[in-house]
Write a structure and sequence with these properties.
13 helices, 39% helix, 351 residues, alpha/beta, 7-stranded parallel sheet
Length: 351
């Protein structure tokens, strides 16, 4: 084996620990420079605006192309199709079949989200395109928000805030609300986020039940094989499952009616999990007690009738939107891209 020229030194110097360390560090620096140059030439397509930190880091490390910069997206993709090796998407815009087909050199889709419903996974598998997401790092924030929505809905925190700000407290007291502690909680989907929600609700003394594709052997919560049965046996129903063809409209009229006029629905999953027209009707007609929603069926469009209801808390899909988690998600996206282009194992592979 012939060593690179920088290793050719006097035998005595090279054989000493100090000499070995100096040469190793120099080799690592050269490798780092080579790796950086390699990645600088890799075209990465960002599908829509995300965190400024992620955008800045992608700009520094790769040849970043921003899809939203062009009014004529089809022409933009045609002009740059040969350059793009990676796509970074999220829950707004991922990588559907049409986008994938337009990029002949696409190697990896790194999603800045845990959900994969915006990515054509079948197409990616067919073409050997790697796919990653950002699990775990957002679990706590989404679970915290689910509990926050339950508390805000039952205790009418947003309504009470408006009551005070509008000067109404000077003339009357705010009405009574409903407690959260001790309420039975049903969770659809006992994955990472669902389990974190259960842990938090249990701390409030809430009995926990759940529905998933199968019974979880290590879960000490009551399992319901039917979503309707789960809804009929809980006071707060939380949607925390992945969006698939099977879970689309998993909360329909039957489930809502089983939850009943005193029941509360919390959705931190995906909007299409819930039949939104049926949800609105049930809330307006009093067949459902209330709802705390972070996601909607046709985001960013929200049914106007929801704005008029005081038993509903509405958020703008901000489940993982904290400074800490957005940075952690971005770092995971970057780490997966770098691992792929350097031929290393992906951190969070999906495909």
């Amino acid at each position: 084996m012939r060593w690179p020229s920088f290793f050719h030194r006097r035998r005595r110097k090279f054989s000493s620990p100090q000499g070995r360390n100096q040469n190793l560090h120099r080799a690592l620096r050269i490798l780092s420079v080579v790796s950086s140059k390699l990645m600088e030439n890799k075209g990465v397509l960002m599908t829509c605006p995300m965190s400024s930190y992620l955008e800045e880091q992608l700009q520094k490390r790769f040849r970043l192309l921003k899809l939203w910069d062009s009014q004529m997206k089809a022409d933009f993709l045609k002009q740059n199709s040969q350059l793009i090796s990676a796509v970074v998407g999220n829950t707004v815009l991922g990588a559907d079949s049409e986008l994938i087909d337009s990029l002949p050199n696409l190697e990896i889709v790194s999603s800045n989200s845990v959900g994969l419903d915006k990515i054509d996974l079948v197409k990616c598998k067919e073409r050997g395109i790697r796919v990653t997401n950002t699990p775990d790092v957002l679990t706590d924030d989404v679970a915290d928000l689910a509990i926050g929505l339950a508390l805000a809905t039952l205790r009418k925190i947003s309504v009470a805030d408006g009551f005070l700000r509008n000067g109404l407290w000077k003339n009357s007291d705010f009405g009574l609300t409903t407690k959260f502690s001790g309420k039975s909680v049903g969770i659809i989907g006992l994955g990472r986020i669902g389990s974190a929600i259960a842990k938090r609700a249990k701390a409030f003394g809430c009995p926990i039940g759940y529905h998933s594709r199968s019974r979880k052997p290590n879960a000490n919560y009551k399992y319901y094989s039917s979503v309707i049965d789960l809804a009929a046996n809980c006071q707060i129903l939380v949607v925390a499952c992945a969006l698939t063809d099977e879970t689309r409209h998993i909360v329909n009229r039957e489930v809502i009616d089983a939850l009943g006029p005193k029941g509360i629905l919390i959705n931190i999953g995906r909007g299409p999990h819930v039949d939104e027209s049926e949800l609105v009707s049930a809330l307006v007609e009093g067949r459902l007690g209330g709802a705390g929603l972070d996601v909607y069926e046709n985001e960013p469009e929200i049914p106007e009738k929801l704005f008029q209801l005081q038993n509903v808390v509405l958020l703008s899909h901000v489940g993982s939107d904290t400074v800490e988690t957005c940075k952690a998600m971005a770092d995971l996206v970057l780490a997966n891209l770098e691992a792929h282009f350097l031929g290393k194992p992906l951190l969070t592979p999906v495909v």
